[in-house]
Amino acid sequence: TGECQANVVILHKSLADDFEKFCHANDGPLPLLYRSKPGEWKCPSLSSNSDIRTDCLQYRIYEYGACTGTSTSLKDYFDQLKDMVTFYLGCSFSFEKAAHKVGVPLRNVEQKCNVSMYKTDMPCCRVASFCCNLVVTMRPIPEDQLEAVVEATYPLKDSHGAPVHIGNPGLLGIQNLSSPDYGDPVQPHPQDVPVFWACGVTGVEAVSNCKSPLAFTHSPGCMSITALKNEDAPVHNSKEIPMVHCISQNPLHYSIASETAVRKIRELESLIGIDPGDRGMKHLCCQDELLKTCLSLSHARSVLITTGFPTHFNHEPPEENDGPPGAIAMAAMLQSLEKDVVIVTDQRAMGLNKKIIEDGVQQGVLKTPVPLLSYQGDAAESALMFLCENGNLERPRFDQLIAIERAGMAADGNYYNARKVNIKHLVDPIDELFLAAHNIPGVTTTGIGDGGNELGMGKVKEAVRKHIKNGDVIACDVEADFAIVAGVSNWGGYAVACALYILNTCEIHDRYLRKAIGFPRLSKKANWASALPSITKEEKLLKILIQHGVRSGVTASLEMEVDGLPFYNVHSVIIEKLLEQIP
Prior knowledge:
Layout: E1 3-12, H1 13-25, E2 32-35, E3 59-63, E4 66-71, H2 78-81, E5 84-90, H3 96-101, H4 107-110, E6 116-123, E7 133-142, H5 146-153, E8 165-167, E9 182-183, E10 192-198, H6 202-210, E11 215-218, E12 224-229, E13 242-249, E14 252-258, H7 259-272, H8 289-299, E15 302-308, H9 324-336, E16 340-345, H10 350-362, E17 372-374, H11 382-387, E18 400-406, H12 431-437, E19 444-449, H13 461-467, H14 471-474, E20 482-485, H15 489-504, H16 507-513, H17 525-530, H18 535-547, E21 561-562, E22 565-566, H19 567-580
Parallel strand pairs: 15-16, 15-18, 16-17, 18-19, 19-20
Antiparallel strand pairs: 1-5, 1-11, 1-12, 2-5, 3-4, 3-11, 6-7, 6-9, 7-10, 8-10, 8-14, 13-14, 21-22
């Protein structure tokens, strides 16, 4: 019709303050346009001739939480309405014109049917007796127009704003798109992607759950029509522009972050790409591997990190000091973001890594110890049993696996250091976990390396064979979903920690992560900042490693110079430059 529409909730005045707080606590699905006084039928700010008793085409009547009927008028409830308060809430139908204006097809409009609405398994922030799971609308959008529809709807906060999920409905707990809980099923076209917005029908669910003696709502799809034109809907100006990135194909999953955050993370990726030994690493770099890794990590709940490259095969311990500091930097940031983190390493190195972690906690580099595991791969199903509860693909223990400076298996089944020395006898088959992860929906893998022989670098193995010395022999054959290439692998770990901080302090990404329910998490910013890497932390970790007999790696020779600086000074410069990108 061209006019803005409003979802409606009518409650007894004794519940009104709590419901208003519930709306503010969940302003994605419940953007509050107007709260009436008790017994007020009109809403002058939305329409000069409104009468809430007849404004909606159909109302639902709730008694003690049960829907006991519907009505086209509430005039029979004259006495009860005198003690009731009406809430007018923004509606996603109001942003459809903005989407249409930028050329985005809307399948529900084309098919002349109501939009599809679904209950999710995402709990809203509870206030007193008001609690429910988020309800969403779904519109199939062509893949090449995802960014356009996000950018068009993002400023329209009073109409639910940007989407809260793009991709597989199962990630919201929605099992079957062809059976919506409200509205009509909408048929997608080939190449369409399901896009979900927070929905005001969430208020209907909250009313049902509060079990008030009497309450009214609009019937889904039968909103109140206001006098405001869609083109006059309030636009919340922001300098930020949202950007959309695919982070998984199985299941299909996209994430959103601001253009500023993306630019900063791309700068981090560029900084760590400096090649100290001029070994040809630039030929291995692929843009946005750091960004996609960190977007994926941001959505993860549980992360496995593995490290350990026994390049000094004649020394005890044979490990090098590239890898553990980067692993611990990532673990510290992930812990501060309240993710579950474990580190997996070789059985023979468990004692060493336990001491490093304990000393790291004592020195303040880590706040709490990181659980340490080993993997030997004793049987055919070992990897699956390790990664999933009882080997069940639908119950993975980890959402993301990250290898940093971890020896990777070559095409001949052996493991090589940069000088072509076979070190297989010192390496447990942790590669099996990465190979198995490819077959587990929802589990993503990342490899961080600086020589092409590290676990995960199989993604760029052809470039390794072509451009890296001894690459035809040493190239890792095991591919990760994402391959972060750095001049020194530790730098890659530091960049991941910094990028996670940038993403989680990005308001656009934060809103998408929490599905526009609950409050922004920026109050935790100081805690995240305390987990960032620093020169002091790296110096402490390197001293801990030296105390336990760990030597420098082949690429970290103290005699090497980069741009006239001794190599050990370059580490400090890189860390300083990474931290310059922190907002």
